[in-house]
Specification:
5 helices, 97 residues, mainly alpha
């Protein structure tokens, strides 16, 4: 067995693998949604905002908020994410690459 390791960036290899599998775009979208849901929940914790209070700020129900914070729910709109970010004093930054 060799102790040699291949030099380079593992991320590039993983992205190539996802492209070969035909799942790169879907995987990236799901990862972005998960990160945003995590960041929203973290901001709520840091600011001690309860789910009930956050739902009130968004003028929605707690069950709708639960869907927003669910990292597996990808049916959330950009407008909803933007309102949620604003409710915790943040903004959403998007860019085309």
């Amino acid at each position: 067995m060799s102790d040699d390791t291949e030099k380079g960036r593992a991320g590039e290899f993983f992205e190539d693998f996802l492209k070969e599998q035909g799942t790169c775009e879907e995987t990236t979208e799901r990862a972005i949604k998960r990160v945003i849901a995590f960041q929203l929940a973290q901001a709520m914790r840091e600011q001690r905002i309860s789910k009930m209070e956050m739902a009130r700020r968004l003028e929605t129900s707690r069950s709708q908020l639960d869907r927003l914070l669910d990292p597996d729910n990808d049916s959330v709109t950009l407008a909803t994410l933007s309102r949620a970010a604003k409710a915790v004093g943040r903004t959403i930054k998007l860019e085309l690459q």
